[in-house]
Amino acid sequence: MVIWPILMMPLDRFDKDKAPLNDSDTSTGHVSLRRRLLSLMFAAFAVLVTINATLIWSYAKGASNRSYDLLLAGASLSILERVGTTTEGLGVDIPYSALEIVGLAKDDRVFYAVNSNRSGLLTGTDGLPRPDKYKPSSDPVFFDEIFSGELFRFVLQSRRIQTISGPVWVDVQIGQSRFARTAQARELFVSGVAGLAFLSIIGLIFVWLAIRRALRPLASIEKDLAWREPSDLSPLTLDPPREIISLIKAINEFMSRLSSARTQSETFIADVAHQTRTSLAALQGQLTLAGDADSELMLRKRLRLAERQAEKASRLTNQLLSHAMVTHRADHEPLKEIKLEPLIRALLSEMLRDTSLRQIELSFEVTGSDVNGGVIAGDPISLREALRNLIENAVRHGPPKNEIDVLLSCEDAHIEIKISDAGPGIPESEYEAVLKRFHSLDQKTAGSGLGLSIVNQVAISHNGQFILSKAARGGLSALLRFPALMASLFLFFIALPENAYAQTVLKVWSATDTKAMQPVIEGFEKANPTIEIEYREFLTVELHDTFLKDSTAADVVISSAMDLQFDLVNRGLAQPVYTAEPLPDWAVWRSELFGFTFEPAVLAYSTERYDISELPYTHRDLATFLREKQTELKGRVGTYDVRQSGIGYLFATQDAAQGQEALRMTEALGRVDARVFCCTVVMLNAIAEGELDFAYNVLGSYALASAKADPRIGVMLFDDYNLVMARTAFISKDAKNLTAAKQFVNFLLSVEGQHLLSTAPAMIPIIDGNVHFENLNHGHSEKEEFSFLPIRLSAGLLTYLDRLKRQRFLDNWEGAFSLSPK
What we know:
Elements: H1 3-14, H2 33-80, E1 83-86, E2 89-92, H3 96-102, E3 110-116, E4 120-124, E5 141-147, E6 150-163, E7 166-177, H4 179-214, H5 217-226, H6 245-292, H7 296-332, E8 336-339, H8 340-351, E9 361-368, E10 375-378, H9 380-397, E11 403-410, E12 414-420, H10 451-461, E13 465-470, E14 476-483, H11 487-493, E15 504-510, H12 514-527, E16 531-537, H13 540-549, E17 556-559, H14 562-570, E18 574-575, E19 588-589, E20 593-595, E21 599-606, H15 619-628, E22 637-640, H16 646-657, H17 661-671, E23 675-677, H18 680-688, E24 694-699, H19 700-709, E25 713-716, E26 722-725, E27 728-732, H20 738-749, H21 751-759, E28 788-790, H22 803-817
Helix pairs in contact: 1-2, 2-3, 2-4, 6-7, 7-10, 8-9, 9-10, 12-21, 15-17, 20-21
Main location: membrane
EC number: 2.7.13.3
Transmembrane segments: 37-60, 188-211
């Protein structure tokens, strides 16, 4: 599907200067290489790959839909089975397994609704899309619709229920985003195409054989070029197939250009050799004459001539090296931003240290509107060499007391450097000639004829101009003009904006104590001095409800209530952030919601009244223990008020999801008139003050910290299971400081952030969090490891957030605790 046009592309290029050849045209007598490739490649790949890939993709999508539709149908049927009549009318008890089934597609968002044709919405999300002209049916109906900004797959299934007032149709609608379906379809497609790829490889072998046979005429070209001498750049003389005529022409044109370049190089080398040989021969002649001198006066004269000739040879060598260096840098060195004013000042200061320039009046002036000092894109080394050559030429060819003016003119569009002297100048007719190599007007000044050629080469490599003219004092005026690097363009690409160091205020809403998060906040602000965190505390339920009303007011949301956090993210109020830090699979969802702490639910107890060996080791035994000591423990057991504590409601509902033991525990807590509290800290303080003997399902991190600080508080883990919650964080979809928010979440999950969490009071990082409990209950449990049961971020967390199910759970809980409804 992709190979055919790629392999055909070079053949098309060969005829780019001509109209495309007709495959059936044999008037030229050339064999059609394209015809062979088309017949083999079209038959082997175009039809096979395209048709089979299309069929495989269609099959993969259908198979994926059928697989996940079964999950939707199973979940809807399990909910329909829990619909019934009550004294108040129709009711439904959403089973935990229903949303857990849909949650098997881990990263998909889930919405549901239960409706009746008489009462309308019973529970769930209002406003889910429905198919036109839907008629209630016991058979599931599947359809795709856009909802909450994403494509969802919906199932709609109905059931007829007989009530006192007559039959009523109740339908269940569940929507699931298509992330898992698409991933499975892609996996099936890749697996199917893998087999097709194997067949394609076999086909490629045949194509390779066909091409090899078709390209045999090219072997003669290879043989011709392989056996040639390096100096043989004559054109190829072959009778090739018509498809490669353009290739032969291109090779011959390249050889012609290569021959021309070699001729130029040979000419330059010959000129260099001639100039060097002449200079050295003259030097040798002067030294020979000096050796034959018959008087001291004649010897001194010959030595002065030899010295002058040596100076000329030295300058010639330096200029040749400079010319080679400038040519090389023009081809290989990238241009960078340069301010010419400081460059020129540094060069003049360096040259003025030469004693030979003491009689020279050298002036430097800067004019123009560009306050940046002449900013251009250039190579500083080449520019210094060019300016040095111009000044040295002015000194060498001018009078002993010369006046040299250097003027830097900085305008918005271009930058000019003008160097003028009071020397004899150059005739206008020679302006063009002196720019050529080895052209010198005055042999007496030891000139090499390369200085102005080097300057011209530098100007060309900088997209500039080199202009010669007559100076005001009668000498030569050499002008270098370069395009200016605009100040606005420079500031946009290179300079920092004015507000680069402006303080960014990152708004973090959290249901975690500020004191516990302080080390992380301080560490993040230290690592990011331009970001200031505005940290605001809430209770878990309050945080959920407030953010739901205004999702634009916070950038990052942190809470221990995993179900409430999942609900917000499932509604589409978060956005993804990708982190390289590995997290447990249970603590991350859709790259949008991240757990960052390890928080087991533990039993805190009074060490003054009980020894750990006296305590029950399982939830069943604890319920029995409370019943047996009902009188002794009246009012001395505490737990969360699940009506106002999000984390308390999460632990209570997750206990209920583990089985019937939760009912026994709730009944036992009611028997001892358990007291309810808002939070863990209050319960731990009550144990320390002797008001409570036990606190059930409190946060392990807070309990461990309190136990270390106060020996009156003990902490115990159960042998059967210990629920583990993770404080979670997500970035608001409407975050105003998105970049800073991503930095903070990544820092929170990083090794450094997790280390800072471990130093905070009552915080346990999620990475190796269970290590903090290794020495707890030592000798109490026969197991080598505790039975930690992490609460997974999945659609199952939505079960007990259902309006009817939540109300039924709270009613039963209040009844067990003999509490009045709030």
